Amino acid sequence: MRSSVRTRITLVATAMVAVALVFAAWLILQMVERDFVETTERALEAELELEAAQFGATGFGPEEVFFFDFVVQDRPLSLGLFTIAEEGIAFGELYEQGFLVGDVFIDLDEVAVIEIVDPLSGLPIQDPELVEELEAAAFEVREIESEAAEVGEALIVGAVARDEVNESLQAVREALTLIVPALVVVMGFLIWFLVGRALRPVGAMSERVEAITTTRLDQRVPVPSGRDEVANLATVMNGMLDRLQRGDHRQRQFAADASHELRSPLSTVRAAAEMIEHNPASERTESLASDIVHEADRMDRLIGDLLHLSRVDEDRSSEFFEPIDLGQLVADCAGGVDVTTEPGLVVLGAQDQLRRVVENLVANAQRHASTQVTVHAVPAANGRVELRVDDDGAGVPVNDRERIFERFSRLDAARSRDRGGAGLGLALVKAIVTRHGGWVHAETSPTLGGASFVVRLPRAPNGTQQAKH
Length: 469
Known about the structure:
alpha+beta, Helix Hairpins, Heat Shock Protein 90, eight-stranded antiparallel sheet, five-stranded mixed sheet, 15 strands
């Protein structure tokens, strides 16, 4: 079963939110704990400073004992005044409700309990709860300076139990345990809603695309408001549909034009064949047979042009292009006209296709020229080669200089089909030149005054192997 994009996005986003919230909850607990502990320790420091100041002011004797009270697990305890037992270790007494319950040894470097000893037996106290919670208490140490005691002979040691801190942390932890899952659920529903709202235009686009068929290419997908990726996708799809519609129209027009062009010679052939069939001994038999051959040649050329156009349209690869001397190719193909070429005009291409370009342009010029046709193959700017075919005919009107390269396009619809072609020659020229990375256009001949067809092709890179003719 395939999951929808909406489901996948919601699950991934919700999981990321859950991870982020858990991490944030952990950070909150760490910060709250640190804040509670620091607040408690600051209060302890302040009280010890006050007590130390009082001792310094009133005097302090070895027989005097200061008790600092605190509570561990509802047990009121007191730590007596500590003195140094040996280097780095302080010694004091722990009282509970006025009774001595143990001697306490504290490491002054670590400020932590080393051991709690029974004062009667001298053995460590076996009260795990007392030991554990006393070791967890926060200690602060202050040296006492007075007339009766030298520095370091006596210390005030204060301790604060973490009961209240732990209780506060537990309350925060329980609150976060309820809040984090609730936030994950709420965020999951919110993400589901927002993703659905964002993908709603995509659903509308999908429904519209499903309704579009080859007979309804005029339909377009709705473009949502805004300038986000979804709106851009809708715009791109509509552009694609525009191109498909234009391509479909061109294909339909191409099929209709091809059918029309083929029907005319077929009608001529059929009519001539029927006349020969009904009257084989007629004196027109030879003329009719000649008409049949002529029309068959026309159909052959038309079908050949159609096949060639189809191959050019389908084959977009230049993998099999080879170096070709365009000047030599022009000299070989443009027989019977005035040819001007230069050596070293090497291009990369398909030889049979470039030959077809030269032949079609020369044939078109000869068909419309009055008396003269010239062909020039010369170097051009920007590393290109220029092929120019000029005639002294009537020329091409400016408004028709783009249309003449369309398929089945003829400027004079009423002219004789014997004189004109099927309107595929120049279309084939444009398709081949475009495939070779060049361009072609029509203009007025600067020398003969008629039409001038200019083709520019990229020159082959330096170091290309010897060109073929």
